[in-house]
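job 3f2a | input accepted
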Amino acid sequence: MLRLVTPPATPVVSLAEIKRHVRVENSDDDSYLESLVSAATGMVDGADGWLGRALITQTWDYALDLFPCQRSGSIAVLPIPLAPLVSVTSVAYTAADGTDTPLATFRTFNATSSQPAYIVPAIDETWPLTKCEPESVRIRFVAGYGAAGAVPAGIKHAIMLIAGHWYENREDVGDRALAKMPMASEALLMPYRNWRG
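job 3f2a | predicted structure (197 res):
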């Protein structure tokens, strides 16, 4: 289970950027345009987003029922579900005896990559045994590109295309033929998508 702890401090696309994109100069539709940007961002950002990544820096809690099992000749890898990872703030678990215990040492891989990172036990260690109950492993992590200016231009432009499409086509049905969602937005987003199982 993923739960957002600290949402992004600013939108990915500013009001000025979306107004320039849809060629609106007055402020009559400002709040409506901001809501469209928010909805379009929600389609691609975070735990439920199409990209499987965090766009602007945000903090998440990730809960699992147990640590992954180590199989013969392999490392028990625990993937962090959103990229890019900034840091793992804490890992805690409910021990077999029921005590809540912080995990002092672990290793993080792919932390500087735009692909999902993962953590593994410290060298010569294994994951500890946990109590058999839901959410017995808890991870807090920070993910995102940083500020809005660090979000890749393709992602920002796709959000503007989606919001602009909704601004021009405000109904699902009507008495005129509506254009389909531009495929350009999907093409812009595809290189950044993390494929989840």
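job 3f2a | The chain has two domains: 7-52+148-192, 58-143.
job 3f2a | closed
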